[in-house]
Design brief:
The chain is mostly helical. It has 7 helices and 3 strands; from the N terminus they run αααβααβαβα. Helix 3 crosses helix 4 and helix 4 crosses helix 5.
């Protein structure tokens, strides 16, 4: 009996990684938290998941990224979409027409939230709700969550619990 046989089949979307799909799929309405050591590739992993879902299933995403401004984030998404580097390197760089195509694709599938405005969980979820209603967004990424203003709280644990509860309710 394999692990795959022991677990119920989930109706989630493929991650774009066959090996990972055996353990995890992206289920609409479900909250997923990605954790790990600093600089271990969490953001790049989530970006690749988003690109795979956008490319394979035409998903649209809202991104609230406190560490990756759009001027850096958009080229990364273009690289993942085209599987070619944006900057000079050992492999051939994307051509101008490819960059134009990739930027158009990114603009159709991703909306970047301004992180210089108030960043409470309520303000982020309000903007996400608008993106869902107006643009058909299916996924929200907050990266990293520790930049969110937790406001008046008794303990950090309670604040995080309340924040995750709000995000989970929004996802459903």
């Amino acid at each position: 009996l394999s692990l795959h046989d022991a677990l119920p089949i989930c109706s989630g979307e493929s991650t774009g990684f066959a090996e990972l799909d055996e353990l995890y799929t992206v289920v609409p309405g479900q909250l997923t938290v990605v954790t790990g050591y600093p600089s271990s590739g969490k953001s790049n992993f989530v970006d690749q998941l988003m690109v795979n879902l956008a490319r394979d299933r035409d998903w649209k995403f809202a991104i609230c990224s406190f560490e990756n401004p759009p001027s850096l984030h958009i080229p990364k998404l273009c690289e993942m979409y085209l599987k070619k580097p944006f900057y000079e390197g050992p492999t051939p760089r994307m051509k101008k027409f490819e960059l134009t195509q990739a930027m158009q694709w990114v603009s159709e599938h991703f909306i970047m939230f301004d992180t210089l405005v108030e960043s409470t969980i309520d303000s982020i979820l309000d903007r996400a709700q608008s993106a869902v209603a107006q643009l058909g967004v299916r996924g929200l990424v907050i990266d990293p969550y520790n930049f969110i203003d937790l406001q008046n709280t008794t303990t950090e644990t309670d604040a995080i619990s309340r924040m995750l509860t709000k995000v989970q309710a929004f996802a459903k």
